[in-house]
TrEMBL record, chain A:
This is RNA terminal phosphate cyclase-like 1. It comes from Cyprinus carpio. One of its GO terms (molecular function) is RNA endonuclease activity. Belongs to the RNA 3'-terminal cyclase family. Type 2 subfamily. GO terms for cellular component: nucleolus. SUPFAM superfamilies: EPT/RTPC-like. One of its GO terms (biological process) is endonucleolytic cleavage of tricistronic rRNA transcript (SSU-rRNA, 5.8S rRNA, LSU-rRNA). CDD domains: RNA_Cyclase_Class_I (cd00875). Residues 2-125 form the RNA 3'-terminal phosphate cyclase domain. NCBIfam families: 18S_RNA_Rcl1p. It is found in: Nucleus, Nucleolus.
TrEMBL record, chain B:
One of its GO terms (molecular function) is GTPase activity. Residues 1-46, 400-568, 730-757, 1117-1143, 1172-1224 are annotated as: Disordered. CDD domains: BMS1 (cd01882). Belongs to the TRAFAC class translation factor GTPase superfamily. Bms1-like GTPase family. BMS1 subfamily. This is BMS1 ribosome biogenesis factor. GO terms for cellular component: 90S preribosome; nucleoplasm; small-subunit processome. It catalyses: GTP + H2O = GDP + phosphate + H(+). InterPro entries: AARP2CN (IPR012948), Bms1/Tsr1 (IPR039761), Bms1_N (IPR037875), BMS1_TSR1_C (IPR007034), G_Bms1/Tsr1_dom (IPR030387), P-loop_NTPase (IPR027417). It comes from the Eukaryota. Keywords: ATP-binding, GTP-binding, Hydrolase, Nucleotide-binding, Nucleus, Phosphoprotein, Ribosome biogenesis. Residues 25-37, 408-426, 557-566, 735-747, 1132-1143, 1172-1199 have a biased composition (Basic and acidic residues). The lineage of its organism: Eukaryota, Metazoa, Chordata, Craniata, Vertebrata. The keyword Magnesium does not apply.
């Protein structure tokens, strides 16, 4: 299959690895001043190479053309030094998609930037802020033979909100200020809020200063919606006040609640992938409005697995006050089974 | 020799014996009732352990019966059951099929080739396939068979083929097998007959399972089996139940019953060996088939499907289920390869047969048979050798045609068929367009190209006579021809092709013809050309489509464009058109109307006038259409996937804010912009809400537990329900009686919903029903599921899932449904496969089954497979590593070179040279990735009958990988050249320092068992190293290094291409030969290694050095052990040597006498000594005797004395006791 440009780079490589179809990506930043693959993409390819066996990767001299022939997912113990241009979340999102389909359970130690404003954060062993990084993440995942169909159509009501306000190499008071401001907004909705403050010191605080807030809303049916905001890296852009950050994050969570669904907007694609790779049964998931990334992902799923989702919109009722429109995604699984796992 | 009839035993009816018996009988009944009472001990628990064991065993047996519950995925209308009739040659296979067909359909089929599909009952169809005596066919058919009728010649007994087939079946999931014994009339003797039957039956049972059905066909009547027996067999087949097999439920497959070559005849003419495009037809089985998936055709190879479309069922089940049996019209038969079912298959033409009597009827009412024929006619167009007519269906105004004038054509141009046809066929037009443009340089060929283009144009043919000159002049040389014929009428379908475009748009079109990207750059507002992509819709709209959409407005979604002038076309015109081009001839025999469609040349046309006319107020209409769509819900699906199969249009101008919520621009449009965008999964909304405002905040109020709940989940309601359930109770302690508050509730409800009063009754009713349901659910949960096991829960879950699967897409249109689900099993599909080898078509033999096996994701790749393998116990020879072997794995048959290994205790995979005789071993091959757990079988050759049992091995796939772990033993030998104490220098093991460096620390051993370790490389000689040992080595010692060397598996994956062999030689495929075969064929004898030959053993005599004892040690030794200082005597000098004595005669005599005397003396002495010895012996004997006597005597005496002493002692003791007692 052939693609153009470096958009959805991870999706393409991940889906290619899962479906066994080879991929050729042309014109990667060919018109750019700095053409070709960036360091973080190269690092991502290297990570893929580490967790697979028999992968063939060809990149042309300028780095504008990539040919990727996937091997078999191997797993095992992997240690990877992630490039600091993107945070570990960038790499981890792809690993999350691949991890259940490995030969041996994955145990990956990723080192690099744990929190930055662009990518989703991860809970960590050591924190490391952009730009210098120095954080560490351990990710383990068991392997599965096949996926069960998913039925997530009833998100339920939010019963509590939890969160972590973290600060590294800044005053520990920052975290408290964040918590206060975030609570000031969220308290109007629900009293059960607990936001941990997490101030890391010494070796586990990475190399750069920064602070941020992660909020998770849990519903009675056990679905989670998350939101997070991280301060801008030191020396890049305007400095952020912790109060503003807390408020913004709380509003972001409310926005996420407004969108609703059983999966938050960041993880839509992951849930859709697991639906696709399920057995040949009908799976259903209720999502909020599809993010552009998810839409791209849906297109790629169609290209790689020939699976289309039935997309039904659910308009909110007149007297209901449950946020915006929802989308009910329905698909028949591809009947995918983990061909990497050994049987004895 | 009649036996004397023995007198039978007579039971007594009266007398004491009879009475006794009667009494017993009466008691017996009573006993049964109160046995437990009468003999309670017999029923009491004797041993708890024993009871536990019994219980355990009972549970075991119960659990063993459980199967893992699976989701029931059988389609509502299942595909026909594949019945494979198998057996050695001349056993009556064809006769049986003929009889079965006759039994079911009352039709006689003379020549059976290819699958025959018949309707056998109200709910069942059968596809009968004959399996010829070729292992390729046997393997392929065993993979697709649902039921195997295994014919056995009873007069001969079992043949190897039967057993081979059974083994093949076993490996690929066991289908139902029913044995049929034939040739039973050859037995003259009844007894031998029954004996043979019994013998065969029991042998059959051991192979299949105990109690497997074996059918007897006793004799033939006029060359056919007896009707009653065939009927019985048919009944058995009709009621047979089938179990799902793992491989088949996870892979789609099609047993092709029709094949058509779609290749352009011109390309064939130019290059008869060019790759062919072929469409294959058949019922889809197994599971959902996705468009553009990979398929494997066993015997040909792997191909990716260009297009799949579903056709109306040519052999449908009766629509209305009646109580009684089928009527004659419902007993359909479909066998295109055999030339039945309305079609006779010829090389480049298709004959449609139908009895003339039916013809008029069929016009009036559309019955299944008619549909069948019509569909076939419609699809038949594909076959044409002159054009890929599959994409073409003739289109004329249906209303204009009067059926009386030309009945056949009216059927052909059936509106419905036309429409379905058009919809079914999709193709990548872009590619074809490109091709066309390339080709179009030649003016001469233009006419043919027109035809091609017509073929490309899906679902639309404009039939008319054409002025060829006008064509040539009007056509621009590089572009497609546009003919200006204002008088002619347009005939449009909604296919979006440039062909339909007006001349005025030509300039635009030229640009459109190019890549869409260019178009983007040019900023052309929405002129894109694309055809509806097959199965998965294309992502763009077309201006033409917009136009069509306008039509849609009138025709309510269905494109039914009818031009006023269309009526002009009548059938005669069409016929003339045919005749002028000489492509159609019609023959009218008396009984049949036989239409021979030769490749019909279709003309295309562009009707500028018409096009312009209806494009006039395009923009206005478009905007209207857009408005209308805006009112409807924004179609998210279209946003995500582009155009849908439904003819819903979307204006290209207004993509920006569709749905208000979704700001997704279409992929092609903004591709340039977004191709290099940031790859991030976070979604930052453009218009975030202002959460400081109260009304915004209240919009999500209900998302929290603090908000309002739905009525059925509200805590208050739930409480109320609980009240109703458990409301009435009396508090025993206080004596208070609580009553359910019914009145209050009503009030509350009234308060809650005053506005719902309008349809209050209905609401109330619903509510009540809902409440009842919930109560029942709760009751069930409480009382039924008390003993629900995990197994029951699982089963229920599966059932729910199955129901959901069935319901989810039930009401969706098939066109759309196939896009979501894929083509579901039971559909009759047409699969178009490009780039098939030409031999597939030229050497086509309908007797050989063509199976299209769908492949799962990444099953088209190649890698290393680890499998567990066992040589078949009936195969006479063991298998050799690296000998090519033909494997049947998954759908595939291929030749590969396996390496056999065995797993050591430490998990090492050690290479074996041969397979073990009666044991499993591992095997690694380079082959197609196939899911683990898939069974396979191996044969050494597929051609000829060299082995008496051809199946060499069976096994199962264990693991897939991209690397191999097999090692073989490697023994390196070195020799010490310098020995220190425990250290020595060793050479000859390695050649370079580097090699040694790799083995530093490795353990070595000598022949005598001294262990050691490699320490470090020496500089000279290269490859020498220092090693230490646990003891001192000798120079004569040999040092071994035992290590493991990884072996590589030869990457041979050679699919068996038996279907490509010439007709009649399809069972002669020979792949790579084994080394043994090669040597045999080339007459090469093995030259053995000279060292391996046996030679007489010549042993050198070994010389040992003398023992050297150090001087110090010598001193310390005792004299006895001291080495004696025996100087070697030198030669006695001559003077010291004594001369020999020579005697005189006299002296001689004296000496002789002395000798004699001394010998006499010696003799005497000797004699005396012997005597003395004898005497002494005697003396000793006597002395011994005396001694013995003496001893005896002494003993006696001693005894006496002891006794006396003892008595004395006793007395003493007694007296002392007495004294003591006295004292007391």
């Amino acid at each position: 299959m052939e693609f153009e440009g470096c958009n959805c780079f991870r999706q393409r490589l991940v889906l290619s690895t899962l479906s066994g179809k080879r991929v050729k990506i042309r014109n990667i930043r060919s018109k750019d001043d700095n053409p070709g693959l960036r360091d973080f993409e190269a690092s991502f390819i290297r990570l893929l190479d580490k967790v697979t066996n028999g992968t063939r990767i060809e990149i042309n001299q300028t780095g504008t053309v990539l040919f990727y022939q996937p091997g078999l997912l191997y797993g095992g113990s992997v240690e990877h030094e992630c490039n600091v241009q993107r945070s570990i979340g960038y790499y981890l999102e792809a690993l999350l998609m691949l991890a259940p389909f490995m030969k041996t359970p994955l145990r990956a130690v990723l080192k690099g930037v744990t929190n930055d404003p662009t990518d989703p954060s991860v809970s960590v062993l050591k924190r490391g802020m952009a730009p210098a990084g120095g954080g560490e993440v351990l990710f383990t995942c068991p392997v599965r033979r096949s996926m069960k169909p998913v039925h997530l159509t009833e998100p339920g009501k939010i019963k509590r909100i939890r969160g972590t306000a973290f600060s590294v190499r800044v005053s520990p008071q920052m975290a408290n200020r964040i918590v206060d401001s975030a609570r000031s907004i969220l308290n109007k909705f629900i009293p059960d809020i607990y936001i941990y403050t997490d101030h890391m010191k010494g070796a586990s605080s990475g190399k750069s200063p920064g602070f941020g807030l992660t909020l998770v809303a849990e519903t009675v049916n056990g679905t989670f919606l998350g939101a997070e905001v991280v301060s801008t890296p030191q020396g890049q852009g305007d400095p952020v006040l912790p109060e503003d950050l807390g408020r913004n994050c709380a509003k972001l969570l409310l926005e996420e609640v407004y969108r609703g669904g059983c999966v938050d907007s960041t993880n839509q694609s992951l849930s859709l992938l697991y639906m696709t790779l399920g057995q040949q049964d009908v799976s259903k998931t209720l999502l909020g409005p599809l993010s552009p990334y998810t839409v791209e992902f849906l297109r790629h799923i169609r290209d790689f697995f020939q699976i289309m989702f039935k997309i039904e919109q659910q308009k909110p009722g007149e007297d209901e006050q449950k946020g915006g429109e929802k989308v009910l995604m329905t698909c028949v699984g591809a009947g995918y089974s983990n061909i990497n796992k050994t049987i004895k | 020799m009649e036996k004397k009839e023995q007198k039978r035993h007579q039971h007594k009816h009266s007398g004491p014996k009879a009475q006794k018996k009667n009494r017993k009988k009466e008691q017996g009944t009573e006993q049964g009732q109160d046995e437990r009472k009468r003999n309670p001990r017999a029923f009491s628990v004797q041993s708890a352990v024993r009871m536990a064991r019994t219980f355990h065993r009972a549970q075991d047996i119960k659990t063993k019966k459980h199967h893992i519950p699976l989701v029931d995925r059988t389609p509502l209308e299942p595909p026909p059951v594949v019945v494979v009739v198998m057996g050695p040659p001349k056993v009556g296979k064809s006769t049986l099929i003929r009889c079965l067909i006759k039994n079911y359909t009352r039709q006689k089929l003379s020549d059976i080739c290819g699958p025959v599909t018949i309707v056998s009952g109200k709910k069942r169809r059968l596809t009968l396939i004959e399996c010829n005596n070729d292992i390729n066919s046997m393997i392929d058919l065993a993979k697709v068979a649902d039921l195997v009728l295994m014919l056995i010649d009873a007069s001969f007994g079992f043949e190897m083929e039967t057993f081979e087939f059974l083994n093949i079946c076993q490996v690929h999931g066991f289908p139902r097998v029913m044995g049929v014994l034939t040739h039973l009339d050859t037995f003259k003797n009844n007894k031998t007959l029954s004996k043979t039957k019994k013998r065969l039956k029991h042998r059959f049972w051991t192979e299949v399972y105990q109690g497997a059905k074996l059918f007897y066909l006793s004799g033939m009547v006029y060359g056919e089996y007896q009707t009653q027996e065939v009927k019985n067999l048919g009944r058995f087949i009709s009621v047979m139940k089938f179990r799902p097999l793992v491989w088949r439920t996870s892979h789609p497959y099609v047993v092709a019953d029709r094949m058509e070559d779609l290749t352009d005849p011109e390309t064939i003419r130019l290059d008869p060996k060019c790759d062919r495009t072929v469409s294959l037809y058949g019922y889809l089985r197994g599971t959902f088939l996705k468009n553009k998936c990979q398929v494997h055709i066993p015997g040909v190879g792997d191909f990716s499907v260009a297009d799949v479309s579903f056709l109306p069922d040519p052999c449908p089940l009766p629509e209305v289920i009646k109580k009684r049996a089928l009527n004659v019209k419902e007993r359909l038969l479909y066998a295109p390869l055999a030339g039945v079912g309305g079609l006779v298959y010829d090389k480049d033409a298709v004959y449609i047969d139908m009895p003339s009597g039916h013809a008029s009827q069929q016009q009036e009412e559309v019955r299944p048979t008619t549909e069948l024929v019509q569909s076939l006619i419609g699809t038949q167009a594909t076959l044409d050798a002159k054009m890929a007519a599959s994409k073409v269906s003739l289109f004329t105004g249906t209303a204009a045609l009067t059926p009386e004038e030309n009945p056949m054509e009216s059927r052909e141009w059936d509106e419905k068929a036309q429409r379905e046809r058009r919809r079914a066929v999709f193709a990548d037009e872009d590619e074809e367009d490109d091709d066309e443009e390339e080709e179009e340089s030649d003016e001469e060929e233009e006419e043919e190209e027109e035809e091609e283009e017509d073929e490309d144009e899906e679902g639309l043919i404009t039939l008319k006579k054409e002025d060829e000159k006008a064509v040539e002049t009007a056509a621009p040389p590089v572009k497609k021809q546009k003919i200006e014929e204002p008088m002619e009428m347009p005939a449009f379908a909604d296919s979006d092709d440039e062909l339909e475009k007006s001349e005025g748009e030509e300039s635009e079109e030229e640009e459109e013809g190019d890549e869409e990207n260019e178009e983007m750059e040019e900023g052309e507002p929405a002129k894109r050309s694309s055809g509806p992509d097959s199965g998965l819709c294309s992502e763009e709209d077309d201006e033409d489509e917009e136009e069509d959409s306008d039509m849609d407005e009138d025709a309510d979604g269905i494109v039914k464009f009818k031009h006023p002038e269309e009526e002009k076309i009548d059938t005669e015109d069409a016929e003339m058109a045919y005749e002028t081009t000489g492509t159609l001839s019609m023959i009218y025999p008396s009984d049949y109307i036989k239409y021979v469609f030769f490749l019909v040349c279709f003309f295309w046309d562009v009707f500028v006038e018409g096009a312009l006319r209806w494009k006039e107020d395009l923009s206005k209409k478009a905007s209207e259409a857009y408005l209308r769509h805006q009112l409807a819900a924004p179609n998210l699906r279209k946003l995500v996937y582009g155009t849908v199969a439904e003819e819903e249009e979307e204006d290209s101008n207004d993509e920006e804010e569709l749905g208000g919520l979704f700001k997704v621009s279409r992929p092609e449009r903004s591709k340039k912009v977004r191709a290099d965008a940031m790859d991030c999964s976070r979604f930052h909304p453009d218009s975030s809400h202002d959460w400081d405002q109260e009304e915004v905040r209240s919009s999500i109020r209900d998302c929290f537990v603090t908000g309002k709940w739905e009525e059925d989940k509200d805590a208050a309601t739930l409480l109320k329900e609980d009240d109703e359930l458990y409301g009435d109770f009396e508090d025993l302690e206080t004596g208070e009686v609580h009553k359910a508050k019914t009145g209050n509730k009503d009030k509350e409800e009234e308060e809650e919903a005053p506005q719902v009063k309008l349809d209050d009754d209905e609401v109330q009713k619903n509510k009540r029903l809902e409440k009842k349901r919930r109560l029942k659910e709760r009751f069930d949960a409480q009382y039924d599921d008390g003993d629900a096991t995990y197994f029951d829960d699982l089963k229920e879950e599966m059932q729910k899932q199955a129901e959901l699967n069935r319901q989810e897409f039930e009401d969706v249109d098939d066109e759309v449904r196939v896009q979501y689900e894929g083509f579901r099993p039971g559909m009759y599909v047409r699969v178009e496969i490009p780039a098939l080898p030409c031999e597939f078509v030229t050497n086509f033999d309908p007797h050989y089954p063509i199976v299209l096996g769908g492949l799962g994701p990444s099953e088209g790749n190649v890698g290393y497979l680890q499998m567990r393998l066992k040589k078949h116990r009936w195969h006479s020879r063991i298998l050799k590593t690296r000998d090519p072997l033909i494997l049947s794995l998954g759908w595939r048959r291929f030749q590969t070179m396996p390496l056999y290994y065995i797993e050591d205790h430490n998990g090492r995979h050690r290479l074996l040279k041969y397979t073990p005789e009666h044991m499993h071993c591992g095997a690694t091959i380079w082959g197609p990735i196939t899911p683990q757990g898939t069974g396979f079988l191996a044969v050494q050759t597929v051609g000829g009958f060299k082995a008496n049992f051809r199946i060499a091995a069976t096994g199962v796939v264990l693991d897939l990988d991209k690397s191999v772990t097999i090692v073989k033993k490697l023994k390196l030998i070195g020799y010490p050249y310098k020995i220190f104490k425990n250290t020595c220098f060793i050479q000859g093991m390695f050649n370079t320092v580097l090699e040694v460096a790799k083995f530093e620390g490795a353990s070595v051993r000598t022949v005598s068992g001294i262990k050691g370790q490699i320490k470090k490389a020496l500089r000279t000689p290269p490859g020498a190293f220092r090693a230490t040992f646990e003891d001192r080595l000798l120079m004569s010692d040999i040092v071994f290094l035992r290590s493991w060397y990884p072996v590589s598996v030869p990457q041979l994956y050679n699919p068996v291409t038996s279907l490509l062999m010439p007709v009649g030689q399809k069972d002669t495929w020979a792949g790579m030969r084994t080394l043994g075969q090669l040597k045999h064929d080339l007459g090469i004898r093995n030259k053995p290694n000279q060292d391996s030959l046996y030679k007489p053993v010549v042993r050198q005599v070994r010389h040992f050095n003398t023992l050297h004892i150090p001087k110090e040690l010598q001193k310390a030794l005792p004299f006895k052990n001291k080495p004696k200082q025996m100087q070697a005597k030198g030669k006695t000098p001559r003077d010291l040597q004594r001369p020999a004595v020579i005697r005189e005669p006299h002296e001689k005599k004296v000496a002789a006498l002395l000798d004699a005397l001394s010998s006499v003396y010696a003799y005497k002495n000797k004699k005396a000594k012997a005597e003395q010895h004898a005497k002494h012996k005697e003396f000793l004997k006597q002395k011994e005797k005396q001694d013995a006597e003496r001893q005896k005597r002494l003993k006696e005496e001693r005894k006496k004395t002891y006794r006396a002493m003892g008595q004395k002692e006793k007395k003493k003791l007694k007296s002392s006791l007495k004294g003591a007692s006295k004292d007391n």
